[in-house]
Amino acid sequence: MSDTANRIVDIMAELIQTRGYSAVSYQDIADAIGIRKASIHYHFPSKGDLGEAVIRQYNKSLLDELEAVAADPGASASDKLEAFLEPYLSFRGDDQRVCLCGALAGEFFALPKGMQAEVTKFFEAHQGWLTNLFAACKKDGSMKMPGSPEQTARLFFGAMQGALLAKRAANDDTQIDDVATTLRALVA
Amino acid sequence: MSDTANRIVDIMAELIQTRGYSAVSYQDIADAIGIRKASIHYHFPSKGDLGEAVIRQYNKSLLDELEAVAADPGASASDKLEAFLEPYLSFRGDDQRVCLCGALAGEFFALPKGMQAEVTKFFEAHQGWLTNLFAACKKDGSMKMPGSPEQTARLFFGAMQGALLAKRAANDDTQIDDVATTLRALVA
DNA sequence: GTCTATACAAAGATAGAC
DNA sequence: GTCTATCTTTGTATAGAC
User: Fold this and answer.
1) Residue B73 C-alpha, separation from nearest chain A C-alpha, in angstroms
2) DSSP secondary-structure letter at A21?
3) B69: phi > 0 → left, psi -120 to 50 → alpha, else beta; which?
């Protein structure tokens, strides 16, 4: 992908994470990176094409991390849990973004089908990763947990997604740490 | 509020809950209830006015329920928790909606300031209600809990908001029950 | 690859008749 | 209160010069 295409994807991701997909226009992107609207269409013919590219890059970036930790024999169960939490914790501070796919999930049926499919992948992949982690922990007894591996995965995933929304809507930075701390204690 | 105004608010709520605020137009509403765009402007001069009215009605409807249960001397702590969970559980089935304010939180900075303020109120009121519930339970020992009353409130609230998004994005109805079941077990 | 120019549809909103 | 008609701006997208 060209340098310009990368800049377009990056700024689009940021704009979606702050305002949502429907509210972002090619004009917004053009203004942000100092080119013309028509140039964006050269790289991404339709807005849906761009949206898909944004989600795919986001998914890949996060999943690469998770898979690397999962495959690391030196990483403890706790290390792996922290690897899951880390991206959410990174939204602390005055960051106005939420999870890309969390934002998109809120306007799900306004999205083109191709984007919907990518959002679905994100949810399934992250919940699946957590389920695998907790299933392994259940086997070797390295973590207690409040329900089945899948139930626990869903609780953890949903709680962090919700915490991001709450942090921003209630303008309270401590939301993320509060939920992360409580989740850690549940399996400690 | 007139009958037409009520119908406008109701359909707008449903459209926001399925597609988000930015993706809904006056034309969509007009088509849905069989009137003309201009008629909507008579009742709600601007889209932001309508958005605010929608959130206010949503907030009032849910908070009235919660406050009634909180004030009911015959309601146990468990009854009160169920009253909190009930609106989330109602999204099970083939309902394509999520929580109105959960959807709006995802596109927070695309909203007019007046709407942002109403969304903030929702988050603070519901987390506050839960915090009060758990604080009372801590005093009388009627529930165990995994953290402080406020931390527990944030966990419960975020987890249910996240569960709604996950249910729809992953197209898996069991998400909501799984999370609700796990939460109940945490304080049982 | 980026630009100017433009097409075309849809958006939010207002004026004024009924 | 609802309508038709219209305004103005913005949206996505394409054509074609450079």
Assistant:
1) 30
2) S
3) alpha
Taking CB atoms and an 8 Å limit, are B179 and A155 in contact across chains? yes
Cα separation, A155 vs A152, in Å, equals 5
Which residue is listed with tokens 């009605």?
B57
Q: Which nucleotides of D are covered by protein (CB under 7 A)?
A: 1-5, 10-16
B104 touches chain A (CB under 8 A): yes
C-alpha–C-alpha distance, residues B183 and B176, integer Å: 11
Of B149, B182, B162, the closest CA to residue A145 belongs to: B182
Structure confidence by residue, pLDDT tens digits, A59-79: 999 999 999 999 999 999 999
Closest by Cβ to A159, choosing from B19, B110, B158: B158
* Rounded Cα gap, residues A159 and A170, in angstroms: 16
pTM: 0.98
Taking CA atoms, B178 is separated from A92, B100, B141, B159, B174, in Å, by 28, 21, 26, 11, 6
